[in-house]
Amino acid sequence: MTPEDAVVDLRSDTVTLPTEEMLEAIKQAKLGDDVYGEDPTVLRLEEMAAQKMGKEAALLVTSGTQANLVSTMSNTKRGDSVILEAESHVYWYEVGGISTIGGVLPWPVRGNRGALDPADVEAAIRPKNIHFPDATLVCIENTHNRAGGTVITPAQIGVLGEVVHSHGLKFYMDGARIFNAAVALGVDVKEFTKSVDNLMFCLSKGLSCPVGSLVVGDADFVGRARKYRKMLGGGMRQAGIIAAPGIVALEKMIGRLADDHDNAKLLALGLAKVDGIEVDLGAVQTNMVAFSVRGLEITADQFVARAKEKGVLCGTVDAFRVRMVTHRGIEKADIEKTLQRIQDMTRGR
Ligand code: TLP
Asked: Alpha-carbon distance 19 to 245, whole Å?
C-alpha cells in the first residue's frame, strides 16, 4: 500500500501507539511490586498526577472504565443513587458496571452539549424519604464524548459544584480527555479540577500511552479506590512499565493536543461542505467531529461501512450520527485525504 492508499484511522484517539521515547522509558523504568507500594516509577507518576491536578493523591488503574468504577464505588455506598449526564460514557459504554458491581442506581439528567444545568441537577436531588435511594454523587464528563468532544468550562463546573456541595453530595469528573479541555481553552488543568472532589483522566487516549488512567482526589478517597482496584483484580505488580510512558505523556504530550484540535476543525469545515452531511460546527471544540448523515439517506452504520471501503475508519454515535476523532499520527494531509475520499464516496465514485 502506498501512503496515498493508506487507511486513515479516525475511530478513536485510543488507537495511538506509544512514541519511541515512551518505549525507551519502559525499557529504562525502575520497577518494584506496586501492590506492596514499591514500584518507584508508579509512585512518581501518581505524585506527578496529583500535583498536576491540585489534589492530594492519585492511583494508577488499568483503564478509564476501571477508573470510573472504582471512583463511583469510593464515592458512594451500595443502594445510593448517582446523578449523571444522560449521554455520559459511564451510563452508555461501561457495561452497567456501576449498577451491577457498584450497586448504585444511575439517575440520568440530560445536559446541553454535555453540560448539566445546575437547576436540573438540583431538581434531580431528591430529599431524604423512605421511598428513595440516597443521592450521594454527581458525575460530569469533560470533554464530553457523545456530545462531540465538547468542553464543560471551569465556570460551568464551579456553579454546578456549588449546588452539588450545598446539598452535601460528592462531585466527580470523568476527565478522560481533560487535557484536551485545558488545551482548548488555554488554561491550567487545575481550573477544571478545583471545584470537583475527585476525578479520573486517561493516559491512553490523545496522550498516546498504551495503557492506563489515573484516579485523583484526597488521600482517603484514593485509599478506598486502591482497595476497590484490588477487589476488581486491578492490583498490578511491576506496573512501572505502564507508568513510565505516563510520565513521558505528562511531561511532553499535552501541548501537541492543539494540533489534533486544529485538524478536527479542518475536518469539520470540510465535512460541512459535503452535500447531505450536517455538522454542528459550534460543538467541534477539541479532537472530535460528530456529524449527521441523515441527509445522505443512509444510516450511520452504512456510512461507516462505505467509508471503510474507501480507506477511512470511523465510528457511530447513534443511528444517523458518525464520529471521527483526530490524534497523533493524523496529519493535515490525512484530513485532506479523508475529505477527498468522503466526497468521492457520497458522489458514488
Ligand atoms: N471511550 C472510548 C469508547 O469506549 C467509546 C472512545 O473511543 O472514545 N470516559 C470517557 C469519556 C471515554 O471516552 C472513555 C473511552 C472512557 C471513559 C473509558 O476508557 P477506557 O476505554 O480506557 O476504559
From this structure: 9
Distance 227 CA to ligand 1 centre (A): 23
The CA 99 to ligand 1 mean position distance, Å, reads 18
Q: Is 202 in the pocket of ligand 1 (CB under 6 A)?
A: yes
Pocket lining: 85 vs ligand 1, CB cutoff 6 Å: no
pLDDT for 3 equals: 67
Q: Over 90: is that where the pLDDT of 134 sits?
A: yes
Cα 184 to Cα 198: distance, rounded to the nearest angstrom = 21
Closest among 44, 92, 21, 2 to 328, alpha carbons compared: 21
| Per-residue confidence (pLDDT) for residue 5, from 0 to 100 | 83
What gap in Å lies between CA 314 and CA 324, rounded to an integer? 5
Helix (H, G, I), strand (E, B) or coil at 154: helix
Biggest alpha carbon–alpha carbon distance for the chain: 67
Rounded to 5 degrees, φ, ψ at 117 are -80, 125
Q: Sheet harboring 278-279: ordered strands across?
A: 278-279, 288-292, 321-325, 315-318
User: From the CA of 238, how far away is ligand 1's center (Å)?
Assistant: 25
> CA 161 → CA 64, 189, 330, distances in Å?
22, 16, 36
